[in-house]
Amino acid sequence: MIFSSHLFIFYFLPLALLFYYLLPRRGKHLSLTVTSYIFYGWANPLFMCLMLYSTVIDYICGLIVADQQVSSWKQPIKVLKKGGQRSRKQKIALFVSIATNLSLLGFFKYFNFAIDNYNAVTVALGLESMQLDTLFRIILPLGISFYTFQSMSYTIDIYKGNAKAIRNFIDFACYVSMFPQLVAGPIIRFQEVANQLESRIHSFEKFARGLTFLFLGMGKKILLANPCGKIADLAFNAGGGLDVLDSWYGATAYAFQIYFDFSGYSDMAIGLGLMLGFVFPKNFDSPYISKSITEFWRRWHLSLSFWLRDYLYISLGGSRKGNARTYINLAAVMLLGGLWHGSSWNFLIWGAIHGGLLAFERMMGKDSIYRKLPGALQVLITFILVLFSWVFFRADTLTDAWLYCQNMLGIGATNSGAMLINGIIFNPYHLISFCLAGIIIWAMPQTWDFTRKITWPRLIYICAVFVISLVALTTQSFNPFIYFIF
């Protein structure tokens, strides 16, 4: 497995920062690349080979797309003209880059899923003799969904004229492998850090703000996501039969868990980036205060939302080819977004739900009756729709998701033995964490705004969160990162 939290915080991170700052400017990227490969290869050394292979392919393709001969090291690399004609060689290089990344992602992420579904079809047709051997299973490399999208954006940005190619291979390898956001995002597009790879400022102010991001992100993960995750696990693992209150409590706890788990990791990644001199973009912007699903996707997992919009939705035609085509494009993008999250029909259904809701909102227009409702009611309705979609994201199977939704609607069979409320809600730790999660989501500023100006009261609060997080970390055995599996 990847580094434990204790090993990362007390050993790996201090040593990585020490080597990084001791080396001169020319050696910083090499130091960061080496430590990032150690970080990634700790789980499985073979993962490093896979990432290196993808990096080499995209590096070479980037130079070809930039119309730069590998041997012409003294020739300056220029940004291609936007909208200009591209040669056949440049188009082939772009295709090779995209095909290589998608092939790696498709094989490692969906091979097992394809085999399982093929075998299920053979059973349904009475052709068991044609089943494929399931003893051969593919291990999913950590974070492959993130770094393939990130690496692929390099050649696409060069091709579109949004950035220029990198001549130094170590610089590019550093961009792809950077450990702060390697295994769970956010997805850093090349155009967002291209200039920073060439030159960036290291300052005490940046480092201090990075520490606050890191401490607050740890607090989100350890003090809020983990306790809410225990409630969610009890609800979703109850085997059905929950009463209405229990099922809503469990679904809300999961909504809190996945938000604080992922936004907490994103905060830590942004903080670590600042400590290394990089400024990464915001990845969350209070998504649960959204008044529509459209707004939700402008606030949730922004790096993925913008990636899908800029590289997929617009490429499919966006909203430029009529209403019907727009609805189809929205649905297609969200279906693929669902599959990006995992090789399961549940993720596909989750994407379909959001795609359908996005298309429906687009169809209703800005003058719909819904838009005339009080803002608080719009937020509540949107959150309820998101809750039902999270059920499919969290449940193990489609059947489990369907039964859970029935429980939430009060139309499923109930089992008094599966009740959770009496055993969970009166646990002070769980209750306090659950209530704090709601207060922070709907009543407190986001980390991005909170860290802009550090006053003494805020500093005391941040340090307290860090100390309490460390104390809690020593007593917690439940510490999963949801997005590590993507």
SSE inventory with pairings:
Blueprint lengths: L4 H18 L2 H17 L3 H21 L22 H37 L19 H17 L8 H9 L12 H9 L5 H33 L7 H32 L17 H4 L5 H12 L9 H19 L3 H20 L10 H20 L3 H12 L11 H4 L3 H16 L3 H4 L5 H20 L11
Helix pairs in contact: 1-2, 2-3, 2-6, 3-4, 3-5, 3-6, 4-5, 8-9, 8-17, 8-19, 9-14, 9-15, 11-12, 12-13, 13-14, 14-15
Which descriptors apply to this entry?
single chain; 486 residues; mainly alpha; 2 domains
Task: Provide structural commentary.
It is built from 19 helices and no strands. The chain has 486 residues and is mostly helical. It has two domains: 5-199, no CATH class; 206-485, no CATH class. The model has no long low-confidence stretch (mean pLDDT 87).
Please indicate the percent range of residues in DSSP E strands (runs of 2 or more). under 5%
Q: What do the pLDDT scores average to? A: 87
Give the tally of structural domains. 2
Helix fraction, binned, reads 55-70%
Specify the oligomeric state. single chain
Main sheet makeup: none
Structural class: mainly alpha
Helix-strand pattern: HHHHHHHHHHHHHHHHHHH
- C-alpha Rg, in Å? 23 Å
Weakly predicted, low-confidence segments: none
Distance between the termini: 15 Å
Please provide the count of β strands: 0
- Principal-axes geometry comes out as globular
| Total DSSP helices | 19
